[in-house]
Amino acid sequence: MEVKWRFQPSCSLAAAGDLNVRAVVKRLIENVDKNSGKPMINLGHGDPSGFSCFRTAETAEGALVSAVRSAKYNGYPVRGGTPSARSAIAEYLSKDLPYKLSPDDVYVTSGCNQAIEILLSVLALPGANILLPRACFPFYETRAAFSKLEVRHFNLVAERGWEVDLDNVEALADENTVAMVVINPGNPCGNVSTYQHLNKVVPYAILYH
């Protein structure tokens, strides 16, 4: 008797995975008239290494080469980053803060996606919800679906430079809200919030976190 595995993708995760800015940009580029003779700059390309005018700093290249040649880093690093890396990051970030960070305040991840993955996994309590901006970097929604976090979208006001609609945030948040995501500089809107506006947002983030 032939037994078939019941393997099939999750519909909710598949739908969340379709929220991909690059896929939309790709479709737009495919529909551009190639015979127009007009040069085109792809502003959806987020990796500077794809352009010859951007080079990695020689200091960074030298540090990488030295690390490889030292043979000290041929295994998996400690969780959250090596002590030397966390110390350097803490010292650098402390320059712009009224207080001093310690290496224990720093957690190093393999890019932004892993940071989002870890944070949302930690916050995924039963019945919890998270507030995401509309529009938002799509991986937040994908990962929230994976972690079974309810997503509630608050509005950004285009007429005010995509500022957070604080009245909308207040209407959406409740005792089960575990986090509010504020992306600055904004992705995908490209806005940079003013210091004054962020000062108004912070009390909400503290209250509902």
From TrEMBL:
Domain of life: Eukaryota
InterPro entries xrefs: Aminotransferase_I/II_large, PyrdxlP-dep_Trfase, PyrdxlP-dep_Trfase_major, PyrdxlP-dep_Trfase_small
Domain called Aminotransferase class I/classII large: residue spans: 39-202
Pfam family, one: Aminotran_1_2
Molecular function (Gene Ontology), one example: pyridoxal phosphate binding
GO biological process: L-tyrosine catabolic process
The protein's name in its UniProt record: Aminotransferase class I/classII large domain-containing protein
Record organism: Asparagus officinalis (Garden asparagus)
Taxonomic lineage from the root: Eukaryota, Viridiplantae, Streptophyta, Embryophyta, Tracheophyta
